[in-house]
Amino acid sequence: DAKTTQPTSMDCAEGRAANLPCNHSTISGNEYVYWYRQIHSQGPQYIIHGLKNNETNEMASLIITEDRKSSTLILPHATLRDTAVYYCIVRPEAFQGGSEKLVFGKGTKLTVNP
Amino acid sequence: ETGVTQTPRHLVMGMTNKKSLKCEQHLGHNAMYWYKQSAKKPLELMFVYNFKEQTENNSVPSRFSPECPNSSHLFLHLHTLQPEDSALYLCASSLDRVEQYFGPGTRLTVT
């Protein structure tokens, strides 16, 4: 079962920042927060992951609250190609003895409008 | 392009057929995965291979038979499937089991 809750859908105007929230109130100390997205009829795409510090890469920023019970994925300048379902997943790193399993929930359907 | 390729991209097969799905990764990864995505359902992990050895089988029926001859190639052999097995089958790979990179998937229809 997914250990995260996300809004079912969100809209964003092209060129604006998209902020996608995720609640993971039962997260354990050794669990990371991962974000993936799936554009229609394609395989999921890894975006970013983090443990407790905020992370940034060329695709997005990940902001994790101090108590680690929630996080926000930020797409700084959304484009039409960012329209996709975004999944927030928590799991321990496999090298820590955690399962390989990525448990995908229902995610957030982000629609970027022109 | 993620560096993970899957063939064929689309497959239609009868319930008595035998077919195979192929996955190849060009990333130097050491772990490979098969996932199933049915309509309106979340992705489900089927099998995991680490360094060619199967390390997870999530109660998958025996009509699905994986094969991993080396760290770059993964197959899923299919036989006597049911219509409810129609789905998108996704392959993924990872290095040291951290973030997973997915292929484009094979859309399978069982008639």
Molecular structure report:
The complex is a heterodimer of chains A (114) and B (111). Chain A has strands spanning 9-13, 18-23, 31-38, 45-50, 55-56, 61-64, 70-75, 84-92, 108-113. Chain A has no helices and 9 strands. In chain A, the strands form 2 sheets. Chain A has a 5-stranded mixed beta sheet, with no helix packed on it. Chain A has a 4-stranded antiparallel beta sheet with strand order 2-7-6-5, with no helix packed on it. With 114 residues, chain A is mostly beta strands. Chain B has 111 residues and is an all-beta fold. Chain B is 0% helix and 59% strand. In chain B, strands 2, 4, 5, 6, 9, 10 and 11 form a 7-stranded mixed beta sheet that branches. In chain B, a hairpin with a 5-residue loop joins strand 9 (87-94) and strand 10 (100-102). The mean pLDDT of chain B is 92.
The shape of chain B, in one word, is globular
Biggest interface: chains and residue counts? A-B, 20 and 25 residues
Strand proportion of chain B, as a percent range, falls in over 45%
Beta-sheet strand percentage of chain A? over 45%
Major sheet: arrangement of strands of chain A: 1-9-8-3-4
